[in-house]
Here is the input.
Amino acid sequence: MKAGSKWKNGVVRVLLTVYIFLMFKVIVLKFHPRDAWFLWERLKRNIAHTEYIVGNLQAGNLIPLKEISQTLDTMTGPGLLNLLGNIVIFIPFGLLLGALGRAGKLALAGALWRSFAVSLGFESAQVLFSIGAFDVDDLILNSFGGALGFVMYRLGSRLTTAASSVPDGKPAR
Here is the structure.
């Protein structure tokens, strides 16, 4: 691996770490200024009294496509914003995954599964910390957003590679 490539991967890894941290603040903490002590106390309480975890799961949505179809049926502004927001928030994640993929070795399925795993972590954290509710539709939308970002990166890299192979930047006739 070239030194420039190592440097690029290092920068992308830092950006990915920062991005995941920011997503945690948005998705799990909901922009509230909660500290680590608060989270630790919630986690200890919920582990000691598992009925909190069970109750949080029961209050959430465990039926795939339920919330998505309800939102598409009613077409309310807040519902559509939530639906699109769950996709859009994971697009940069997919873009960063694409940038990290070594010479195109990360496939779309890999990006999809990584997006799903990170989303599952966030949804599970909401249950474990009793902040928000678990929603299987969020997993679907977040995973789609990550895959979409990955595809966008791949298409963009193909376009820039094709453009750079044209002499003088002018298209051939």
The radius of gyration is 20 Å. The first helix runs from residue 3 to 27.
